[in-house]
Amino acid sequence: METELSRKLGIEHAIFGFTPFPAVAAAITRAGGFGVLGAVRYTAPDDLKRDLDWMHEHTAGKPYGLDVVMPAKKVEGVTEADVEAMIPEGHRQFVRDTLAKHGVPDLPEGEASGWRITGWMEQVARNQLDVAFDYPIKLLANALGSPPADVVRRAHDHGVLVAALAGSARHAERHAEAGIDIVVAQGYEAGGHTGDIASMVLTPEVVDAVNPLPVLAAGGIGSGEQIAAALALGAQGAWLGSLWLTTYEADLHSRALTAKLLAAGSGDTVRSRALTGKPARQLRTEWTDAWDDPDGPGTLPMPLQGLLVADAVSRIQKYEVGPLLGTPVGQIVGRMNTERSVRDAFDELTRGFERAVDRINRIAGRSQS
Amino acid sequence: METELSRKLGIEHAIFGFTPFPAVAAAITRAGGFGVLGAVRYTAPDDLKRDLDWMHEHTAGKPYGLDVVMPAKKVEGVTEADVEAMIPEGHRQFVRDTLAKHGVPDLPEGEASGWRITGWMEQVARNQLDVAFDYPIKLLANALGSPPADVVRRAHDHGVLVAALAGSARHAERHAEAGIDIVVAQGYEAGGHTGDIASMVLTPEVVDAVNPLPVLAAGGIGSGEQIAAALALGAQGAWLGSLWLTTYEADLHSRALTAKLLAAGSGDTVRSRALTGKPARQLRTEWTDAWDDPDGPGTLPMPLQGLLVADAVSRIQKYEVGPLLGTPVGQIVGRMNTERSVRDAFDELTRGFERAVDRINRIAGRSQS
């Protein structure tokens, strides 16, 4: 499965796997795809360094990339305490009440949420980049808008391609103007932050909007047939995030959450502002329902919402509180019904792609294949 | 573009075009596809007879079908007056206020809305069928749930295949149990009534759920590349509705509405209950905004909402009140940027399909094509 972009990156198959787990990212790269490690949770540069060392040792010289979260708008001189002070007491009480209703215990003394707003701040992403450029990464992706011009320049100086996620053609055009190299068109059905244009419509729109820049299709892709569809729509590769969550290598720290993912249908996700303040697709839970309830207080804008719920989300995960337990995931969760290795999942993608090509050729009357 | 289903129906290309306009349906059939005439507006059997006569004369013996609206749940002995009486006065006042705010004139004396709730009632659909089975239709589609068992039997006795729309795999399984022959998997991005699972995810789910029944993919399809994607996902054909709205043969009765469709982007639609009480994708307008406003009275359930707004919608259309003027249409409206003949639109679909097959074969390394 070769496109101009996959050849440029030196990978066998134009399959890009986004994941917060180094073991998953490395396995995707080893399987012949392109593993992209999500860096948002690395607030300490040394932790990122440790995991990139590990990635480097486990990718056998094959290429991989890093995904950072660098907000388009710079927030100057604002501390976490400043943001904390902007959260209304009514919202804090709503968090306490909702957790109490479900009997969610407190975190142990001295144990704070792993998630901090600082992970979303530009300086943290810049510290991550200082680490990352010491490694032979081939791609730097940004999940929130175009990266700043100096970051794009710095990446290019290191021979690193820059990708950015877009939920609309206009959004993609702004990325192109900012000098990025690859647009990831993220459809409505995707897990995480996403707009409301579905991949079937969004992919070709973005391809046309930024031509000749290469586009990766994201959202609704968890099979080789869906990869074939994305490539038929003009993408130069597929960007998959959700699929890896139920692989053996994924470290969700919760059997209950894995079980929920394996059991969920495609209709069991919701695009909600509950997690970060911006619409992000995730498992629908009583937690998302509480935030989406028109009779509730509603969510706060990013980054307030993320800070408001950080400890609560940690508590729900730590104590595996079933009705509240969720995670960002796309509509393809409905087909994530077995645990398996990344390698098995990857090989099934390439087999499914070949089946789809056979099928299309039969339909087109090109039966030699 | 041949599938098992297209061969069974005797059509050249597995492209199904749904439209309320006989001239469009006939042109789709003549071009080598399968035209499906939407019957909901034919409350008088003679009108349907007249248009089916015309279709018959203009399809040169090639196959076509009919789409009726037959609610799954039978409403016994309920008259339009009964339903009228269930509409709260506050909602009627909201309609009057919203129209007055935009200076929408009344309909002329004696001129009522063309849309009547009766078009949605089972007896009307049965009257339509009495007419339709006198014509050599090859397909009967139902837009609301599975048709009643006796209707399925009657269709089969006439050698007519029965299709039903589904927005989820479970919904599709119920159709299969009801003995229908074809499932139309209608994705989130589609115009008209639709669920929230996008085509990229829905199509293969429905294909697997009802296997070996054939599935048509609907929603987000307006190009040959999108048809190739749908077929890669396992569909035996594509079902297109929106694309034909800006063809010369479509009779929208409003240049302003055509202009709005030509100018709209993929982000200019909304899935709203404003039109019928069930979520239906349509152009987003100040009219849909008013109904979707959390501070407004909100919509009523089907069939009350449709009856409540019928005259208002007629007035908005007749007087072409720009900010309120809308129509059901899918997210592909963003690519409907030129007026052309059905034949030109159709030929572009088949050309785009061949381009997509070429592309997929290059990517798969099957370069002989």
From TrEMBL, chains A, B:
Enzyme Commission number(s): 1.13.12.-
PANTHER family (alphabetical): 2-NITROPROPANE DIOXYGENASE, MONOOXYGENASE RV1533-RELATED
EC category name: oxidoreductase
Alphabetical UniProt keywords: Flavoprotein, FMN, Oxidoreductase
Record has Flavoprotein as a keyword: yes
GO molecular function terms attached to this record: oxidoreductase activity
Domain of life, source organism: Bacteria
Full protein name: NAD(P)H-dependent flavin oxidoreductase
Organism: Streptomyces maoxianensis
InterPro entries, per the entry: Aldolase_TIM, NMO
Cited Pfam families: NMO (PF03060)
